[in-house]
Amino acid sequence: MKLAIVGSRGIPASYGGFETFAEEISHRLHAGGIDVTVVCQHSDLQPDRSDNVNLVYSRYSKALSPLKFYLDSLRKKPLNTNFLLVCGVGGAVFYPLLNLKGCKLITHVDGREELRGKYSFLKKMYVRIAQSFAAKYSDHIIADSFAVRKYWMGKFNLPAGKVSAIEFGANFVVASDESILDALNLTSGNYFLVVCRMVPENNLEVILKGFLKSGSKLKLVLVGDLSDNFGKLLKSYSSEKIIFLNAIYRKAALFTLRKNCFAYIHGHSVGGTNPSLLEAMAAGNICICHDNEFNRETTENLVFYFSIEEELADRIKQATVLSEYERSKYAEIARKRISDYYNWERITDEYVELFKRL
C-alpha cells in the first residue's frame, strides 16, 4: 500500500498542527508496512528520507506561494499511489486537473477555515469555494472533530460514510529546558500561559482584558508571532504583568513553559481539535477554554470555560483558589483524556481502518 501526504509544510515538524500530524502519522504508518511519501515545501536542506519515510519537495513555499505550492505538491505524488491524503482545502480547486486513476483522494479539512477572522472577504470566499471542491471531488473527508464532521455533512449534504472524524493527538513530552524560565525571570506556578497564532479568532483581546480585569498577582505569558498589525494591537495592552514572546518552535522550551505554568488559557474558537490544547492537557495543565463546541468536545466539558472578558476574570479567580488536591485532579483528568483517546496510536489505527475500508 502506498500513501502520499501533501499540503503540510513537511517533516521533520517545526511549525504547526499539520506538520506534527504528518510526522507522527507517517512514521507509525510506515512501521505498520505502508510505503509513505510526504511532500514538503521548498527547503535549502532536502534530505530524501526521514526514518524510512520518503520525502519529496515542492519548488515553492507554502507561506509565500500557497496556490503554487498546492498545485506543485499535488502533482508530485509518486506513481502508483493508492491514497493521496491532502492537508487542508487550499488546493482543492485543482482536484479536477489531477490524474487520480487508481488513487483514492482524501482531504483533511482542518476545522472551520471559513470563519477565520484574519482572512479578508475574498480569502473567505476562496475558502468556501475550495471547500465545495473538496466535498465534490474527494473520495473521503477527514474532520478533526465530530463538531466539524457535523458541519461538513450538513453544509454539503454528504452521507455519513463519506466523512470521518479522526482527531489529532499529543505526546507526553519529558524533555525540558529550564533555562527559558530563568531568561524570562519566571518561576514555576507564577504565570498563566497562552500559546497560539496571534489572530482575532483566538480571542486574544478578550484574554488580555479578562486577565487584567481579574486583578491576578500572577503574570500572563503569550507565545506567538507578533509581527503583523494585529500583533501590534495586542502589544498596546502593555503591562508589567504581561510578557509577549515571539513564536517558539523548540519542543523542549514549549514543554517547559507548559509544565511550569499555573494554568493554560485557550482562546481558539474556529478550529476542531486544536493541537496546542492537546499539548497543554498532556502537560497536565489546568485549562481555561473559550466556550465553544470544539473545546468542549476535546475536554469533555470537564474544565473551565469563558466567552467574555468578565467570565474569564471569574475563571481565573476560581482557578487561583483551587486546593492542591483539586489541581491534581484536573491534571489527572487532562492527562487521562490524552492517554485514553487523543493518542497517536489510536489515531493511526483509525487511518489504517479507513484505508482498508476505502
Task: Give structural notes.
With 358 residues, this protein is an alpha/beta fold. The protein folds into two domains: 2-169 and 343-357, Rossmann fold (3-Layer(aba) Sandwich); 179-340, Rossmann fold (3-Layer(aba) Sandwich), CATH 3.40.50.2000. It has helices at residues 17-31, 66-75, 121-137, 146-155, 179-183, 204-214, 229-235, 251-260, 275-282, 293-299, 309-320, 324-340, 344-357, and strands at residues 2-6, 35-40, 49-50, 53-57, 83-87, 104-108, 140-143, 163-165, 191-195, 219-223, 242-245, 263-266, 287-290, 304-306. The strands form two sheets. It has an eight-stranded mixed sheet, sandwiched between helices. The protein has a six-stranded parallel sheet with strand order 11-10-9-12-13-14, with helices on both faces. The mean pLDDT is 92.
> What's the total helix number?
13
| Average pLDDT taken over every residue | 92
What number of structural domains do the residues give?
2
What overall form do the CA principal axes indicate?
globular
Which architecture name of the largest domain does CATH use?
3-Layer(aba) Sandwich
- SSE-based structural type: alpha/beta
For the terminal residues, how far apart are their CA atoms?
A: 12 Å
> What is the CA-atom radius of gyration, in angstroms?
20 Å
Proportion of residues in β-strands = 15-25%
CATH level 3 topology of the largest domain: Rossmann fold
Largest sheet descriptor: 8 strands, mixed
H and E string: EHEEEHEEHEHEHEHEHEHEHEHEHHH
Largest sheet strand order? 3-4-2-1-5-6-7-8
Write out the CATH superfamily name of the largest domain.
Glycogen Phosphorylase B
So what's the CATH class of the largest domain?
Alpha Beta
- Outline the low-pLDDT stretches: none
Binned, the helix content reads 25-40%
Q: How many distinct beta strands?
A: 14
